[in-house]
Amino acid sequence: MPTDERRPRRVTVVPGGPVLVEGPVELCTPDGEVVKSDRFLVAVCACRRSKRFPFCDTSHRKRVRTQDD
After folding, report:
1. Which residues form the Iron-binding zinc finger CDGSH type domain (predicted)?
2. If we measure between CA atoms, which residue out of 12, 66, 67, 15 comes closest to residue 43?
3. What digits encode the pLDDT tens for the residues 38-53?
4. Cα–Cα distances in Å, from 55 out to 12, 14, 47, 69?
5. Would you call 24 helix, strand, or coil by DSSP?
6. 53/46 Cα distance (integer angstroms)
7. Who has greater pLDDT, 12 or 5?
């Protein structure tokens, strides 16, 4: 096994935004689909607003905050 595959992957949770994962990655969606990305950094949607779910399309930025938030 190459040493690159054994090293820990960094995962960064962005408050109010996506989860950033060092790639490449395979993501298993809730419906069982496996989605792959070979990018060096992958933004995974955490708000479920993305039209590209499970990948982030920055839809989380469109939310308007109210006084109750």
Report:
1. 22-66
2. 12
3. 999 999 999 988 999 9
4. 15, 14, 10, 25
5. coil
6. 9
7. 12
Taking the C-alpha atoms of 52, 63, 40 and 6 in order, what is their torsion angle to the nearest 10 degrees?
A: -100
- What ranges do the domains of the chain cover? 11-58
Tokens matching residue 5: 């595959």
If you search the block for the tokens 């496996």, which residue do you land on? 34
Token pair of 16 as six digits: 């109010």
Nearest to 46 by CA among 25, 28, 20: 20
Residues 6+ apart with CB under 8 A from 55: 35, 37, 42, 43, 44, 45
